[in-house]
Design brief:
Elements: H1 2-20, H2 25-31, H3 68-72, E1 81-84, E2 89-90, E3 95-96, E4 105-108, E5 120-121, E6 129-131, H4 136-147
Parallel strand pairs: 5-6
Antiparallel strand pairs: 1-4, 2-3
Length: 149
């Protein structure tokens, strides 16, 4: 109830400001980001910010993708097995080094719950697609950008 009252108040104040400054309907829509004014976010999954993403390997909800490079690559190019437990950072592919080492744990994506087949960049229409297929150059450009966050 209070959320709805706050929303009405904000909408009224915003409309008053627009009217006082003779803002056209088209410009109002543009200033509002072409979306409705809402106080409460819809009930949906809220993604975390990308700040520091370079330091949060492995990726996906189950840790099945060892670095950013593989996350941006087609599913067929993602490692099916890799080793976890190594704290040595891989600054090129942005993740932890995944070669076998004494005491390392072999992560196998063919085990139940370990799939790395989701969240794919591809031009194919299917479940789990989050963006268009990236070229090799685009992948490396994105990685360099994500390193800056």
């Amino acid at each position: 109830m209070a959320g709805r009252a706050l929303q009405v108040l904000i909408e009224d104040i915003t409309e008053l400001w627009y009217d006082q400054h003779n803002v056209s309907k088209a410009h109002r829509d543009r200033m509002n980001g072409f979306r409705d004014s809402i106080v409460r976010a819809p009930l949906a999954y809220k993604a975390r910010p990308l700040n520091g993403i370079w330091a949060t390997a492995p990726f996906l909800h189950n840790g099945s993708v060892p670095n950013l490079y593989q996350l941006l690559a087609p599913i067929e190019q993602r490692a099916q097995t890799f080793y976890t437990g190594n704290k040595a950072f891989d600054p090129v592919q942005v993740g932890f080094q995944t070669d076998s080492f004494p005491g390392g744990f072999e992560f196998r994506t063919d085990k139940t719950g370990n799939s790395n087949k989701g969240h794919e960049f591809t031009d194919q229409k299917r479940t789990g697609v989050i963006g268009p297929l990236l070229t090799e150059e685009q992948r490396w450009q994105l990685i360099e950008y994500l390193k800056t966050l």
